[in-house]
Each structure stands twice: as C-alpha cells, then as structure tokens.
Amino acid sequence: MHALVRSGRAPASVLAGRQGNTRRADLPLEQFTSNDIDAVKNVDGTDLIDMTVRFSVMGASFLVLVEREHEQRKVERQAVKAPTGAQTGMLLSQAGFQSGAVEYAIVHGITLI
C-alpha cells in the first residue's frame, strides 16, 4: 500500500480554509523554475536532488525538494531526510514506505507519495 503523508503546507495557489475546506486563491507566481538533478547546499556540503522547484509568490521565495526512490522494497527511515534549506520536500516510491519513514515524514513536514 502506498502512503500519502501531507505536510499541511499547500501550494501557493491553494489555501486551506477553516474546518478542512479548500479555497483557490489566484495568486500570481512571480517566478517559477524546476530543475532535474540539481545541486543543493546543506550543512554538510552539497546534495544532488532529483528535482527542485523554486517559485515566488507575494515576494516570498519557496523551494521544494523532490526525490525518487527506485527500490523494489518499502523505503526505510534512513532514506527520508529533512529538507535542508527548503520549505518542504517530497519523496516518491512505487514500493511504499515503512512505518518509521512515515513517522519521520510527518514530524518533518515531508510529503510521501
């Protein structure tokens, strides 16, 4: 079974309303770029990230890190990393995620798909 963990952070064009309702806000993107295999600096050096998405809305800049796991088994906790320098991260896996990976993702606001 595939796990979907939502970080509680919505994209810039979707704002969560009260009581779980969703409203669309037409906020213009001031900048948008996406890059495959992008070098992102962190406290230990540099990571090569499968995909980065950068955008700005209302003067605020956002960075989303996207990683893909190609393993045949469920992703373990050690493969899920907190997104250093980014507002959020996403990890995609066809095999799903072990419970420790799901728990870590919830605490660190990482979306698992």
What would your notes on this structure say?
This protein has a five-stranded mixed beta sheet with strand order 3-4-5-6-7. The protein is built from one helix and seven strands, in the order E-E-E-E-E-E-H-E. With 113 residues, the chain is mostly beta strands. The protein has one domain: Trna Endonuclease, Chain: A, domain 1 (3-Layer(aba) Sandwich), CATH 3.40.1350.10. The N and C termini lie close together (11 Å).
Sheet/helix structural class: mainly beta
Largest sheet: 5 strands, mixed
Bin the strand percentage: over 45%
CATH topology: Trna Endonuclease, Chain: A, domain 1
Largest beta sheet: strand ordering? 3-4-5-6-7
Secondary structure: number of strands: 7
Q: Please report the distance between the alpha carbons of the first and last residues.
A: 11 Å
Radius of gyration: 15 Å
Basic shape: globular
**Averaged pLDDT:** 79
Low-confidence stretches: 1-21
* SSE topology string: EEEEEEHE
Instruction: Classify the helix fraction into a percent range.
Output: under 10%
Q: How many helices does DSSP assign?
A: 1
Oligomer: single chain
| CATH architecture classification name | 3-Layer(aba) Sandwich
**How many structural domains does the protein architecture include?**
1
